[in-house]
Amino acid sequence: MVEQINYWAVFVAAMSTFVVGSLWYSPVMFGKKWMQLNGFSEDSIKQARYPMPVIFGSSFVAALLAAFALALFLGSESDLTFGMFAGFMIAAFWIATSRLTTALFEQQKMALVLIHAGYDVVSYVVMGAIIGAW
Fold this sequence. Notes:
Blueprint: H1 7-24, H2 31-38, H3 42-46, H4 52-74, H5 80-106, H6 110-133
Helix pairs in contact: 1-4, 1-6, 4-6, 5-6
């Protein structure tokens, strides 16, 4: 099954998470609320625990692994519609529910959970669309 994976589609799907993330967490969408809910300021973001190359590099590796697993799940016979459907189902019913459980036990703010879960749903639908259509 691994030999049938379109690695360009996996790469582009992984990159798409950065496009979605840059929009989702921008000041125009949810970036200001995300910062407020986390207690972040512009200065605290600049003084992050990890350097930005580590954050972005690790995030890309994680997105690459997720896209690869999604490609394995979708298989070679997938199409745009099934890719989007599978991406939605995975994000909404596996990832978001897992986030919710963790958030409940950690007493996190539900608005923050919804921001992150919304990003996951959109990202996985886009990744599924790319992999399924390609």
